[in-house]
Design a protein that fits this description.
Elements (H helix, E strand, L loop, with lengths): L2 H11 L5 E2 L6 E6 L2 E6 L7 E11 L5 H14 L3 E6 L2 E9 L6 H59 L3 H9 L2 H6 L10 H5 L2
Antiparallel strand pairs: 1-2, 2-3, 3-4, 4-6, 5-6
Helix pairs in contact: 1-3, 2-3
């Protein structure tokens, strides 16, 4: 039995039903925990095993620099697992040699579990980063609300200073227009109130 047949048998022992991905049967896919996994056949190096999860997330060109940072973090922290950007999505691969003396059932099971854990780790990087962005937006919104409250308080303070009683209002009403030209900062009318209170 060659190594490819041995690997195929081990997948079957683990409960996976592999389907060919192409007519040449250079790769096979199977489902695990709601995700599609792909086993890539290497005829030139039969003991080399490559298992991948395609397109765990889709990304835009604007997101690429940030995604690359998280991929590098994953690649440096988890042995044998590597992430790549391919056709607008992030792919993860677990690649290693499995010798003829190894228990292929155990080795493949470990590879699959480790690959799934790596996917969850990478997605947690993304979720944490997006969560931080949301928190920053919330903080900005809170600051804007605080600024609006301060503006309201300033207006109330201004209003109290310049409208203490009805007599003051009457005197301002009776003043001629030329007095407003001489003291423009104290001219109060409905059109200018908003502009004055936010200076």
């Amino acid at each position: 039995m060659d190594m490819k047949e041995k690997f195929m048998q081990s997948f079957k022992h683990l409960g996976f039903v592999l389907e060919p991905l192409d007519e040449e049967k250079t790769a096979y896919f199977y489902n695990y925990e709601g995700h599609r996994f792909i086993y890539f056949v290497n005829d030139n190096d039969p003991i080399f095993v490559s298992i991948g999860i395609p397109a765990i997330i889709e990304i835009s060109e604007e997101q690429r620099p940030y995604i690359n940072k998280w991929i590098q973090l994953l690649n440096s922290n988890i042995k044998y697992v590597k992430g790549y950007i391919f056709e607008g999505g992030v792919w993860l691969f677990y690649e290693r040699m499995i010798t003829e003396t190894e228990n292929t059932d155990e080795s493949l099971a470990h590879m699959i579990i480790q690959l799934e854990n790596s996917m969850n780790t990478f997605l947690s990087y993304v979720e944490d980063a997006l969560g931080d962005d949301d928190d920053e937006e919330d903080d900005d919104d809170e600051e804007d609300d605080d600024d609006e409250e301060d503006d309201d308080e300033d207006y109330e303070h201004y209003d109290d200073e310049h409208h203490d009683d009805d007599d003051d209002d009457a005197s301002l009403t009776e003043a001629d227009d030329t007095s407003y030209d001489k003291c423009p900062d104290y001219k109060i009318d409905n059109d200018d109130t908003d502009n004055k209170t936010h200076d």
